[in-house]
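FAQ: What does the model actually see?

It sees only this:
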Amino acid sequence: MSLAVVLVVVGAAVVLAAAGLTAWLVSRARRARARLAGELAHDPAVRGPEAAIYRGCTGGYSQVRGNGQLALTEQRLLFQKVVGGLVVVPRRTISGTSTAKVFAGGVVGGRTHLIVHTRTGDVGFFVTDLDAWVAALAPPA
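And it is asked to produce this:
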């Protein structure tokens, strides 16, 4: 078998694997959005849902980071991971917010974390509109 044939076969295998992975991730994202929509059917969002990145926590929430959808309701802050579970932070446990370049030992390209402080620890996110999320999570005046 010539080198050209081997390269074509390997290239085709890589393309097929990438296409399969892409299809799987799109399917997972669709199911994650549907799960979050189900949660929001009974407790409507006041902000979101929108794409965000979960950066882990320092307390009793999931340590596994991941991409997903973030939504805020009157009762809860919800983050549905594309690959993984639902992180639920009851609003009554939120004691404040802050922002920082470093969270839980992680720094990513100079991005700023949204840090939600709770009674059991801090939860970090990357969001598109940091100021709007800080304002939305502020206690009512």
